[in-house]
Inverse folding.
């Protein structure tokens, strides 16, 4: 599995997704263990029976509205329930204000909290797409890749058998070289 950290995510997405770091980012890398993104509505209320731990959490309009209807002790307890499920980070959508009791808890625990002006649905879609690419398996192959009528042809084999020569013949006929040597 590819190594993805919250620190890397923040650096890569802070400009395109307009991210605003609300708490200090821990110095040690925080690994993202799964490409899933969740909203913790039920977990905030105390029901976490089928909740998958170690997932990125997004507080949208519903979650922030729920928290704003609680007193400070209840806000703290609700967020502690979510944090007990060990998410690597919490994102707050729609530039929603984070209650003081929650901010105090986040700072006390040195937990990363990041805000975005995007709606929860837009943000989760963009973040999920980014995580899908980041967690996708990758491999390198020694060979030559040519685009022939929109179909990739990968020539592989031992050195000196004519992979590049085959590709050159196709290129002379108007097809496109994609990669040579390492694909």
């Amino acid at each position: 599995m590819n190594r993805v950290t919250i620190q890397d995510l923040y650096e890569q997405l802070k400009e395109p997704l307009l991210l605003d770091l609300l708490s200090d980012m821990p110095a040690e890398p925080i690994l993202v263990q799964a490409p899933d993104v969740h909203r913790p509505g039920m977990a905030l209320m105390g029901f976490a029976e089928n909740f998958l731990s170690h997932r990125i959490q997004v507080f949208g309009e519903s979650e922030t509205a729920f928290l704003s209807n609680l007193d400070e002790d209840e806000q703290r307890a609700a967020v502690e329930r979510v944090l007990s499920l060990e998410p690597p980070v919490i994102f707050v959508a729609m530039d929603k204000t984070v209650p003081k009791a929650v901010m105090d808890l986040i700072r006390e625990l040195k937990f990363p909290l990041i805000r975005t002006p995007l709606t929860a649905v837009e943000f989760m879609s963009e973040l999920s797409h980014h995580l899908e690419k980041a967690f996708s398996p990758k491999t390198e192959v020694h060979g030559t890749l040519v685009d022939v009528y929109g179909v990739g042809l990968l020539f592989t084999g031992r050195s000196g058998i004519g992979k590049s020569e085959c590709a050159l013949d196709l290129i002379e006929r108007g097809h496109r070289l994609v990669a040579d040597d390492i694909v």
Q: What stands out?
A: The two ends are 20 Å apart (CA to CA). The chain has seven helices and eight strands.
